[in-house]
Amino acid sequence: PPAVPGGKFRILERHQWRGMDFRAQADAIKKLTEQYNVTYIGIDSTGVGHGVYENVKAFFPAVREFV
Length: 67
Fold this sequence. Notes:
By secondary structure, the protein is mostly helical.
């Protein structure tokens, strides 16, 4: 998170996982939340992304869904 209120967030890693099922993608995201102080996750929930979104929501209820 930003050091000061209203400050900028930083993107530490960005991933595109192709060929992985949605559970494997959610597991990879969970590992990132354990590695970093994650305060925001946004997921494109169209198509296969909806399964990823549902799995991530189980361990990170604040996940944002984009359609």
